[in-house]
Amino acid sequence: MPVKNTSHPFYEKLSLVLVGLIALGYLVILGKEFLDPLIFGLLFAILLLPIANFLEKKLRLPRSLSSLTSILLLIAFIGGILYLVGSQISNLANDWPMLKSQVGQSLDNLSQWVQQAFHINATKQMSYIHSTQQKILAQGSNVLGTTFGAISSLMLFYSFILIFTFFILLYRSLLIRFIVWVFSDEYSAIVYDIVENIQTILRQYILGLLLEMFVVACLACMAFLFIGIKYAVLLGIIVALFNLIPYLGIFTALLLSTLITFATGNIADAIKVAVSVLALHAIDSNFLLPTIVGSKVKLNALITFLGIVMGEMIWGLSGMFLSIPILAILKIIFDRVETLKPWGFLLGSGTEEKKSTMKKMKPSVADKT
User: Fold this and answer.
1) Cα separation of 327 and 300, whole Å?
2) Is residue 178, in this structure, part of any structural domain at all?
3) How far apart are the C-alpha atoms of 369 and 362, rounded to whole Å?
4) Any domain includes 332
5) pTM value?
6) Residue 8 falls within a domain, yes or no?
């Protein structure tokens, strides 16, 4: 009896894949409030894992105490950065009268320019400003309520991240055993290899981001001190912190640093600061980011950009942060599953495949000669 061909046509497979992706995307959007802090907790747990292991093995602390201590060290580190930024902002607040005077003078100059360019006198401009101000004040209660709700949600979000980080560190052995147990014994080596590579690459990626932020902060502070502007350290930290936001962070850092410099100095210093921020961004994009961070995740620029855009569309700002780690995890899995290797090659830079191809070609060339 002839064997029937059970293979499905391409359009049927493509339809099933598209339906699956749509369903998965819908579930991801629906589960944002749960998955978002969970993934951040996973990243922090991977970052803190060496510290927790050190506290367990060297100091003989129980797992629960070592996990809690690791999280407290992370909170202390973040608190130190916030204290440094807050101390600089407090100095900025002390100069509020000067800032107010500078901004007032700039608004007067802007009003004169509008009057000359568009022939709108100062009375009409002030009436428009007062009407806009009344509308804003009328909606002040709604704005305050929305702001309070946003801050409350943000604090709850951070609390969930710390809780998830603690439990992932506490039950890490159970989670790894579960992941291995799901698959058959013949795939256990591959599963362990995937888990180990995910831990290593994500940890290197996070540490690379921190190192990149430190280098950018140092370069920015040196450039701003050389220009001689006020609050050079604060602006350097602002540039470094916003630099963590892919693609959009540089524009925010450029706007804030230029406005603060203009409010505390003059237009020439503001232009110099703007040029310095753009030059730092060029150095970071072409040298620091590929060397410190890009070599860790081994993703090409096209996939990275598409992932950031899709992450922002799905989860907003947090999706932009998580897109690169998630793509790195997918690439590790794709590279170790035979049927998914083409997708891993698509996500990568292509250099590894080129090297392997050259290695395969060398013996044949040698045989011909």
Assistant:
1) 11
2) no
3) 11
4) no
5) 0.72
6) no
* 266 within domain boundaries: no
CB atoms within 10 A of CB 269: 18
pLDDT in tens, the chain (369 residues): 454 555 677 777 778 878 887 888 888 888 888 888 899 999 899 989 999 999 988 888 899 999 999 999 999 988 888 887 777 777 666 666 666 666 666 666 666 766 676 666 666 666 666 666 555 445 544 544 444 444 567 778 888 999 999 999 999 889 888 888 888 777 788 888 888 888 888 888 888 888 888 888 899 889 888 888 877 888 888 888 887 776 667 788 888 888 778 777 777 888 888 888 888 888 887 777 767 666 666 777 788 778 888 888 888 778 878 888 888 888 888 888 888 888 888 888 665 555 444 444 444 433 443
Quote the crossing angle between the two packed helices 172-182 and 140-170, to the nearest 10°. 80
Q: How far apart are CA 124 and CA 120, in angstroms?
A: 7
Return d(Cα 99, Cα 107) in angstroms, integer.
12
What is the rounded CA–CA span in Å between residue 239 and residue 322?
20
What is the distance in angstroms between the CA of the first residue and the CA of the last residue of the chain? 52
SS3 250: helix
What residues contact residue 69 under an 8 Å CB cut-off, 6+ apart? 51, 52, 55, 61
Instruction: Give the count of domains, the chain.
Output: 1
Q: Which residue in this structure is represented by tokens 């990149």?
A: 212
Among 294, 5, 336, 17, CA closest to 183: 336
The residue to which tokens 């045989």 are assigned: 367
Closest CA to 52 of 134, 162, 160, 170: 170
Q: Which domain holds residue 165?
A: 32-170
Structure-token pair, residue 124: 């009409």
Residue 280: CA atoms inside 13 Å, Cβ hemisphere, count? 32
Asked if 277 and 257 touch (Cβ cutoff 8 Å), the reply is yes
- 3 state SS of 230: coil
